[in-house]
Write a structure and sequence with these properties.
D-amino Acid Aminotransferase, Chain A, domain 1; single chain; seven-stranded antiparallel β-sheet; alpha+beta; 3 domains; five-stranded mixed β-sheet; 22% strand; 13 helices; Dna Ligase, domain 1
């Protein structure tokens, strides 16, 4: 379960990690319904949130704020979904330190929010934060290292960048600390990492404290990943030392541990589509894309291979759904989820061992009879009892294919034909499923 930034920062606050002052502005409710007032209502709430932040601390003025779209995606800044604004960007306000600055800052934030919400993304909420004045950005994360049965801390003195690119181009810039889960994080490891990052004095102590807090969160909430990118190193003032502040939050909770964390509920706002949300509730692995070929595949490795083959053949995937493992007897539910997409064809590719081919074939045939899909079905169902599976498919008028590449080519050709037909504006003779034709495979 991936947590939004505002949810991750709530967890950070629970373990004592410093985060910027903020307000959350809902665009939709957790159940996926729209918040009151539409766009204008949301912008009014942005205005109110900024004014509240501006008056925080007994009247201490906030000079800048950051408007952040709460989305489960990387590169939000590059996509224009994170905006730093000050009163000078609006024509209605003056210096934010002066009495008129509050109105100017609120107006600038409203304009930034309007721009973010008009980009076409489904944004469940906006996080309005006080902008942090910093002198350096760090990177810090903890995740499992399964090959060694231990945890690994990744850190860099160059935060705020694509860490994968940095690791590939300059691996020496990434520092690693390995943690034995039975011994836990040791004090000497935290201090050593701080010195490796070039921190001294109070900042070295602050980094050691931050890493300890992050490790507490990682273990307490059964996380697969906790990441802060960037960690801001603030500028010291006459009355305070430089400090470390979490500029972002990425937290992924292990789904297998959710029974221990009833406060982590699966809600609609976490998913890009109704199908993805319903699949999560059903326990069916599902990924949403924007192509026209729906995949029902048994096993992540096979699904990845089929996904690549579709791309190599010039096709585009609408969704990936894992129709295998513990879900191999859920054919009808799997097909219902695929039919929620505006795809042109459903491609079913399986290789069942424990997940029996004959059971999957019977499920597919039953699903077709009950759901009467309005698009072609291409099947390549292999594995245990596949002879019986193919007999079942033939009796239902489906052509069982034996070669994955052939099945992919068939699906891509059907999708291309449907696209060409739509471009011509043709009206198909029969828009319902017909298992007797060559095109239906």
């Amino acid at each position: 379960m991936k947590r939004f930034e505002f949810q991750g920062k709530d967890l950070f606050a629970r373990v004592g990690i410093r985060i910027p002052a903020s307000r959350l502005v809902r665009i939709m409710e957790p159940d996926g319904t729209a918040s009151p007032g539409g766009m204008e209502g949301a912008l009014k709430r942005v205005d109110t949130a900024v004014r509240e932040l501006s008056r925080k601390g007994g009247g201490t003025a906030v000079s800048r704020v950051v408007v952040k779209a709460q989305l489960d995606m990387g590169g939000r800044g590059k996509a224009g979904l994170i905006r730093v604004v000050d009163a000078g960007e609006s024509g209605t306000g003056g210096d934010s330190a002066e009495p008129g600055g509050e109105a100017g800052l609120a107006s600038a934030a409203v304009e930034a929010a309007r721009d973010i919400l008009s980009k076409g993304y489904t944004v469940p909420a906006l996080l309005i934060e006080e902008a942090v004045t910093f002198q350096q950005e760090l990177y810090l994360s903890i995740s499992p290292e399964p090959t060694e049965a231990r945890y690994v801390v990744l850190a860099s003195a160059e935060g705020g960048v694509d860490i994968e690119t940095l690791a590939a181009e300059r691996p020496e810039a990434i520092k690693r600390v390995y943690i034995d889960p039975f011994r836990g994080l040791q004090a000497y490891q935290s201090r050593g990492l701080a010195y490796d990052l070039g921190l001294e004095g109070s900042l070295a102590k602050d980094l050691a404290r931050l890493l300890t807090q992050l490790y507490t969160l990682f273990t307490q909430f059964d996380a697969e990943l906790v990441e802060i990118n960037p960690v801001f190193v603030t500028k010291g003032t006459a009355g305070s030392e430089p400090a470390l502040v979490a500029g972002d939050a990425k937290v992924i909770i292990d789904d297998n541990s959710l029974h221990r964390h009833p406060d982590f509920q699966t809600v609609r706002e976490q998913y890009d589509s109704d199908a993805a949300y319903e699949a999560a509730l059903e326990g069916i692995p599902y990924l949403q894309f924007d192509g026209d070929i729906s995949l029902m595949c048994a096993g992540a490795g096979l699904a990845t291979t089929v996904f690549d083959l579709v791309n190599y053949e010039g096709g585009h995937v609408a969704n990936y759904l894992e129709f295998g493992g513990p879900n191999y007897n859920k054919a009808q539910r799997a097909m219902e989820l695929c039919l929620k997409n505006s795809s042109s064809v459903i491609l079913i590719v399986t290789f069942g061992t424990i997940a029996r081919a004959d059971v999957m074939a019977e499920g597919v045939v039953t699903a077709i009879k009950n759901l009467k899909p309005d698009r072609p079905i291409v099947t390549c169902i292999r594995g245990t009892n596949e002879e019986q599976a193919h007999t079942t498919l033939r009796e239902a008028g489906l052509e069982p294919l034996y070669n994955t590449e052939e099945a992919v080519r068939r699906a891509v050709a059907l999708a291309a034909a449907a696209t060409a037909q739509n471009n011509r504006g043709d009206i198909p003779q029969d828009a319902t499923h017909d298992a007797s034709g060559e095109a239906q495979a």
